[in-house]
Amino acid sequence: MRISTSMIYTLGTTSVQGHVSELYKLQNQLSSGKRITTPSDDPLAAARVLEISQAKSTAEQYQVNGAAATSALQSQAATLQSISEVLNDIRTLAVQAGDGALSKNDQLAVATEIEGKYTYLLGLANTSENGKYLFSGFKGETQPFSETSPGVVAYNGDQGSRLIQVSSSRQVPVSSPGVDIFQRIKNGNGDFAVSADPAVTGTVNQGTGVATPGSVLNNTLWNAAGNTKDYKVLFAQDTTIAPPVTTYDIVTNSATTINGVAYAAGTSLLTNAASAATASATGGPRYTRVYTDNAAISFKSLAGDTNPNAWDLGIQFNVSNSPTSTPTTSIPVTAPDVFTVKGSVNNQDIFATIHNLIGALRTTGGAQLANHVMGTLANLTQAEDAVLTADAAVGVIMKEVDSHASANEDAVVQYKTTISGLEDLDYAQASTDLALRQTNLEAAQKSFLTVQALSLFNFIHP
Amino acid sequence: MSFESVGLSALRAAQIGLSTAGHNIANASTPGYHRQGLIQSNAFALKTGAGFIGQGVNVDTVRRQISSYIETQLKQVQTTGAQLDSFLSQIEPIDNAVGGSNSGLAVSLEEFFKSVADVSSNPASVPSRQALLSGGSALVSKLQSLATRFSEVRDGLDTQISDSVQLINSYGAQIANLNNQIALQSAGNPNQLPNDLMDQREQLISLLNKEVGTSVITQSDGSVSVFFGSGQPLVIRDTVFTLAAVAGREDAQHLEVDYQFNSTTNIPIGSNNISGGRLGGLLAFRDQSLDVAENSLGRIAMAVATAFNDQHALGQDLAGNAGGNFFTVGTGNVLPGTANAGTGVVTTTLANIQHVTTSDYRLVATAAGYTLTRLSDSTQTAITAAQLAAGFTVDGITLQLAAGATVVGDTFLVRPTRNGASGITMASGISTTTIAAASPITTLATLGNFGNGKISAGSVNSPNDKVTITFTGAGTFTATDNTTGAPLIDSVSGTTTFAYVSGSNISINGWTAQISGAAVVGDVFQVDKGVTSKTASGGGSTAAINNAIISVSPLNANLRQNVTITYSNITSAGTAAAAVVPTGAATVAAALAAITAVAVTGAGGTIALAATGAAIPASLAQANKTAAAVADAARAAAAITGATAASVEAAAQAAATAGFLEYNVTGTGSGIPSGPLAYDTISGAAISYNGWSAKLTGTPQNGDTFTVGPTTSGTADNRNALALAQLESLSTMSGGTSSFQGSYAQMVSLIGNKTSEIKVTGAAQKELVQQTQATQQSVSGVNLDEEAADLLRFQQAYQAAGKMFEISNTLFNSILAAVQ
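The joint structure predicted for all components is written out below.
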């Protein structure tokens, strides 16, 4: 092929320029460490990098969120732990006060000690972190609990539970509204509460009978439709013979329906008639069932009852020591010892419970105090359960946050690897390319010089 | 004598050969120069008795070495190369600006949503809230700076288009002038062509081709006619058709290329009629890439701002007020044609960002109304005058004739998204206290409730909630919020039954859509985040749903009213149920068998319905629950010591009459339930009231209450911030298929791909140009070695001819000497 002289020069400069521009690009890649410096270098990878980078950024954010959640949960768990300890201390003190062996002064001392614990508990309920209260729901800057009058603690927070996003599909609660931990607690044994408290029974028991919190034997029966869960057990002591005989009656406190049979308020479930003690052969007051110290008082039909309808409420509790009545030698009984059995309520206020215990320690003694302590212990158990439930929930969530955190961490590593694979430079390859380009450039330069030096004019000598 | 004349002709030929070679050497580097060569032939021989005696040499002409085929090919590849070059030089700055993973919009978007997430974790923290404001400002300024980059490129583009048009005019004039000269000089002697003038003309055509692609036809008189584009004349003989770059007829910022007939009359050419060369590259870049890229960016900006504002409006700020706008959304614009005869003013507003495309539109007034053309794919939509007057929604934008009247032929250029990125700003009045991180409503379970019923935190109904519309008849339908499962209430009827009128507005949760056509029972439509669809497995009618229009505000006026949810036990209608329970069995076992048979075989359904009439929707499964309760009661009673057939039957009847729980909402406002509804403890219940929704779960008891009211002092409430943070990964664009970042990645991919394509084809074209140039040079180029050889050759020829004269002289002298 014919070659024009100008083509030799054009070719020479074009090839040198081509190599130089490739060298420039390689140098740019090597200095930035990136294979893709503009989207056009690899449009597909560039777009993919953007998408993965968002996923990575989101996963990283979830990690940050997870750390915030863990920190919030940790302080909550620590506080719940302290609350649990305080409740346990109060329980120990209550048991100590309830054994009946304490002198009045000792009782007062215990009351004072419990009062200290009460104040501490109120402080814990108002724990704040960075100026934000732990237990006030969404109202971060509102003190959740305030004592409006002695023993009356008002909740000022709301029932919100702050959520934190720890993975694309999971928002975990990191705060618990205080009302659920301190004031929305069941009383008694969780199903029913036995009480000898004069404020509830309407009478001050004369005897030394102490009731246990009792237990539910059959949930279906206790929760059967129609059961209004409001009963009382009346005791009568017949001292006309020796040893005295104590009897009791199970009476409806309000109208109820058991096993399809309706009973009016004040009806004895043992006789299906209005509750009344009958005179024994010696003239003393007698109810239907005979009491044995510390034997179970069963809420169901037993042999010897005269109620023609079979009935069973599925609960029982025990009474120990010696309940009595007024009078003990004749009828009618005007003031039997009374224990009420009511369905548990859902709004036991732990502050009120402790405050009432302090009051009982200061003002009462004997069986009344013993019964009060027994009831308080049952209530404390419910409160501790509430705290433990909250604590367990926190633990479960912390564990979940941890597992999300490690999943997120794996994801971030995975995303980083993918992004690196897409946009990072293969240094070995690039360095080799650079050396090759350099050689090519030198070859182009040298060959151009050689070719352009060849000219016939060099040989024409005039 | 003849010997001398032969020598003379040889001498002359050698001389011309030498000067031609010299001319070639002199012009070796002249652009457009074609090597010239001597054309010589032997002179006619003299016929003598001794045969034909040669008379020497004739110099016929000096001719260019040229292959017109290769010349044409070279011009073609050069014009394509120039087009690709100019396209690349324009798109490269944009390619750099949108950047990779570490620059461009992507990082700003990520940082912004990180700051949103930070507020959701620390809603009360003022530094976190400040960081969100900074993140928002950074996002806004990034969008604006990208928009500025685009407008700079557009400005530069206009300057270059004007430059190019001027050059084309100048080349055209020079070509016409040369045409004239060449025609004059070759007149009467068509074999002797003015080589150098023709070279100059070739060179001018070649330069012209670098500006715009042309085709050239040579005329018989040696002049050329130059055409460009799809056959528009530029030069015919000595006539030049002048071009002008003029302000666009719709968008003055958009230069168009026209023919300039005289000082007043221009004829538009249309940019799609111009291809090749720099001008072709500039116009193609503007129409194919710049407009789409700018619109894409605008759409992303509008989507971020709209989605964020919409969610923000559902929240509550630190001061207890409903969330205001966080961003100011850029608005679309409509440019009326400069030649419009009417006075009509058309406006465009954003209806639903989900459906907005990156295309521009042209609205033309026709005799029948209007025709809207989507410029990206020329899809046409007919709009009636009444529709445009009322506001017509298509592709997520609403067009409206806001004022004046149009005349047939009036045009409007609609650009829904062009100003999205330049128009976005932080809303005035947004501050750390006005960030709406909280939710405006709070739910409370009343302390002292006996049951363990619960109420969810509740949420404000959002237009993004998925809603299912189910036709219950040809003229009625119900709507359900899928997020909470709550049935939705018709604001017109006040009940859950909506009356269906084909084509009329259905407004739920802040969106408005229309269903049209004949619907039948079982037809199911869905609206999810503003995307409408019809479920295939529905009633099978041809009714269709159109795009939803999203508008969050105003929120329900009663949103923050206090309402109370109360549970009550319904026992009144018990006797009918009790009658269904079998009685009169002889033994406990027989009674139990009879009762459980009724309950288990499903006749329990009869029991419950008999007890409650039609008040209980079958969906609540109250029937089965009652039947199960009856069976449980019978079994428990049978287990009691001393049980009789009568006591078992009595217990079963008591369970049957025990009734069921109802719940009702009281307080200011309206919603579902509008009256007492049966409560199912297994599936719970969903409430939609006053524009919020909440779920009731668990087993509440008679008399239990829950309240829903305004959030007060909710400094640690992060519910709306959580929803805001989730926007990052929600598919809120392109009909629910793409997130913000996904759309940006799509835009980057579009620009990257185009740039890469241009780079690759540009490189290939360069290669082609080089090869064609080499071919052209191999025909027409000057090789100095060749010229050196020619110089030697002609020098020797000249010397040989000189020798002839010497010999002739010697011969002559010999004769003279012989004569003397």
